[in-house]
Request: fold
Amino acid sequence: MFELTQQSLHQWEALCTQDQPPYCTARCPLHLDGKGLCAAVEKGNFTKGREIVEKYVVLPHILAAVCEAPCHSKCRRQEAGDAVQLQLLEQACMTYGKKKQTGSRMAFVRKKTETVAVVGAGMAGLCTALELSVRGYHVTLVEKAAQPGGRLLQVPEQQLAAADLEKDLKKIEQSGIMLETGHAVNEAELQDLLAQYDAVYVSAAALEDMALDIAIDRATLQTDIDKLFAGNSEPEGSSFIADASDGKKAAISIDRYLQKASLTLKREQEGAFASNLFTRTEQVAPLAAVQPQAIHYTEAEAQQEAERCIQCRCTECLDGCAFLRQYKRYPKQYAREVFNNSTIVMGIHGANGMINSCSLCGQCKVLCPNGFDMGEICKVARQDMVTRGKMPPSTHDFALMDMAFSNGDDYFLARHQPGTAESRYALFPGCQMGASMPQLVQQVYRDLSQRLDGGVGLILGCCGAIADWAGDQPLLQQELEKIRAAWQQLGEPQMITLCPSCYAAFQQADIPAVHIVTLLSELGLPMQSGQQNGVLAVHDSCTTRFDRSLQDTVRALAQQAGYTIEELPYSREKTHCCGYGGLTSMVNQEVNQATIQQCIGQSESDYLTYCVNCRDQFRSQGKTTRHILELLYGMDDTPVADISMRRINRQRLKYQMRKEVWGDDVTMAEPKIQYHIADEVRQQLHECMILESDIIQILEHADATKEMIYHKERQLYFSSLRIGNVTFWVEFTIQDGVYEVLHGYSHRMSFEECDVNGAVL
Amino acid sequence: MAQYYESIDPNGELICQKCGVPFEKMEVTLAYMGNSFPVELPRCPICKMVYVPEDLATGKILRVEKSLEDK
Reply:
């Protein structure tokens, strides 16, 4: 665990390489956006492509022709065919793209008063002069030859057409640069220039003509003579692209020098550097480079070549996680939002919803090449919100009330097997197995108590995972202590868990536990399991994503029962959470639904799970899914229980176990009123998270107090009651003494100065 | 005159079953997380029971609750 500090934020941010540039861009000393260029050309948008070239390159026609294309060697396309021919594509953009008519960079730049002299009008000097001119300086360009261009003039026509050279050289005049040709600058004249101008740049070639002994800082091109900047002929001095980069570097330094800014700050990623962007190429189908029929590409050829660009980007975690995709950004940005959210003093905490929608399952950590764990960030953020009293009260209210229910009188129980005074084992079905499939719990208990020696106790309750997911650590400890006390009361038996989350929670709390499937693989299959057949795709549980042995055991048991196992694309340590984890399903229905769809969309086959929540989540969306215990105990299909049934099932489980296993004289409390709820109304109440028990309480209260409101036109009644932090409303009619429930809704606001509706006085 | 966040008239449609009288439009203060909002809602003039229509509960009230929770 970590704290939400700027330092830890930077550590997290460094792990996510999503906004690192593609390899071609990083290797290009001018950082030309090759990926963007390919995306534009692929669509036939050469004008957009030309805009991109011109954005990064001040001599676009020239460089498109003469660039040595260092990007080529770094292109990841090479791993599946040839590198993308970016230089040919740049030429195509300059040929087929329309020239931008308005809004040139210069139009928006404030003219500055400072003057700069640039000596040498080769590639480096030209770039320096143009870059400075773009930044608003008054530039004088001095060249000893009769015309500007330097080595460019020696490039054969076939490679650099005179017309293209001319187009770019025209920019000198268009930019308002003063050009003096046929003017060789010697050492003495340099002194004059230094006196006359605010800064002077001398290209490497021009420098050789002077008998000057100066030291040049390679990082900034600043010399040990004040105001003087000089070209760097080594180590890449012989390449045009290096000269262009040198010119740009000098211009940046001179600009900073004249603006009295630091010459060295944040220049690490200037020029060529290595990108850390992770890009997978294993799935990319090999494609050879498109060769032009003539010297240059036709438009169609260029489009075809641009299509080969694999658009380098890292989507490892996004591909796996519906939650990460939901907010249309990527983890580095999410991390910053989470950290900002925790430091806001006034105003809206806009990231609360996002923080509380993550299932905390750890899949992203497995998928990310650098181990970025959004779950850990969200978990720490939730804990921080709880500690500072900033967790929205409604977010986890229902889930925490449900946990209180599980560890309260209605469900909680800890007993030795009848007729024994000690327990070598204790069955711990957990809250959700009891809520979903109480009959199965009874069957498992009967089986284990018959086949295991040494006594099989029973502990009904919740392991505290819900408090953990809600970010409430003190509450988690409190619930765990309750379970620990029960475990100690039974003589510290080995806990047999039916839920992978309980299993993981006990492992962490140093309570010895075994998952039921591991036990059954040692004990042998229960009598009830007949030989079956068919294909089942295993959906692994996210809380035990690293438990290879448990995963193997589940597969082996299903095979023993006669099934053929299918592996899903995201299985074992890469498995998706079903959406129940982290309380996503209670907090964000959109993310929950997208998560379920991603899980069940992996295969047409029926699914096999070993977590009841995965089973219920998938079945709720119509996916045939069986829990491993349903197979092994030959259970018939049990429909998914709604939120009300999940409570009733737990109450009944405790009641029936006490009555049938221990022979206790117990009775289930019956409602004091007669009521009826139609199926479609049940569904509406389930969606609004209104429990049947809430409805009963309201109706009993209404029946006893007559606090009902009659609506004349609609001919029905309303009644409400404050239960916990919520005011629940129910609409109903009364026929022959039976309350017919029609609808329910709720709000959390209370009424001040009001003596009915159960509100604050 | 007080400024109300919401004003709903029962239009004689609502009858208090306990007191046997029609609801009237009366002032109520809704409160959440230390904030309060004066509104006019249908209310029994005798026992003061309040009626909150569903539209209000799941519309404006819910939105205000959410924004207060995120403050």
